[in-house]
Design a protein that fits this description.
This is Ig-like domain-containing protein. One of its GO terms (cellular component) is external side of plasma membrane. Its main location: membrane. The structure is a single chain. A hairpin with a 3-residue loop joins strand 17 and strand 18. The protein has two domains: 111 residues, Immunoglobulin-like (Sandwich); 110 residues, Immunoglobulin-like (Sandwich). With 250 residues, the chain is mostly beta strands. 7% of the residues lie in helices and 49% in strands.
Length: 250
């Protein structure tokens, strides 16, 4: 009888181990800086609050983004960076969900989050990729210096994430980027600023400076006509249906 009981226990443990899994989204989750996002973590079994440990962390297991164990949040162990910003949806534990809600998303949140679940002697984890984006300020393009053979233009913007690229085009649609010089800087909060210089000939009437990432794009056009220098600014969010919002000043 004892051998039979041990065999049954072993079989039950094996069944539990084999069926217990933790999974997350197969694709990266995207969020805009300043918004909130839910990182979904799903277990294959229903979870009892008093019998589960859920640990969300970044690079260090012992410095959790959020830790739930012994039926309550363990906030004293939480990474200070995520205090009052990270919350576990405990009301859905019985459905197997261990999802994390992150508010006031920062560019420093960009990267991998690990959802680690320890339940009834079994533990599994899932890695979730968070991609943070930030649309920078409207570009400012202006004449930096008058030259004998033309003018030097400067296009600049800040508040981007990830680091953007700058593309220059003339009124004929020709790509002038190879003859430009761009400088990208990162500030203390992780945002990027960019400035790009280019020299053009007087025969160029209109030039366009485009600053873009994979998800966002902004542009400024400068038109030189006699004594008038006119600038128009357009914004495009590539992640949604493309839509230009433009303004003009001189």
């Amino acid at each position: 009888p004892i051998i039979l009981l041990i065999t049954i226990i072993i079989i039950i443990i094996i069944i539990i181990i084999l069926r217990f899994t933790v999974s997350g989204p197969s694709r990266p989750v995207t969020a805009t800086a300043g918004s909130h996002v839910v990182l979904v973590c799903k277990c294959s079994v229903s979870l009892r609050p008093e019998g589960v440990e859920i640990r969300w962390f970044r690079t260090r297991f012992d410095s959790p983004v959020y830790l739930y164990s012994e039926g309550r949040p363990q906030l004293e162990e939480q990474d200070e960076v995520y205090r009052r910003r990270a919350q576990l949806s405990t009301e859905r534990l019985t459905e197997g969900f261990a999802s994390l809600t992150l508010t006031d998303v920062r560019v420093t949140d960009n990267g991998t989050f690990t959802c680690f679940v320890d339940y009834d002697g079994s533990n599994e984890d899932a890695k979730i990729q968070l991609q943070v984006t930030a649309l920078g300020r409207q570009p400012w393009v202006h004449i930096e210096e008058q030259l004998n053979g033309g003018v030097r233009l400067l296009c600049e913007s800040s508040g981007w994430f990830p680091a953007p690229e700058v593309v220059w085009n003339d009124d004929r649609g020709q790509n002038l980027t190879p003859v430009s010089v761009a400088t990208v800087r990162e500030d203390s909060k992780g945002f990027f600023s960019v400035e790009s210089q280019i020299e053009i000939k007087p025969s160029t009437n209109t030039i366009r400076c485009v600053i873009r990432t994979a998800d966002h794009q902004q542009e400024a056009k400068l038109r030189i006509s006699g004594q008038c220098v006119c600038v128009s600014v357009c914004e495009r969010d590539i992640s949604d249906s493309p839509r230009d919002v433009c303004g003009r000043y001189q």
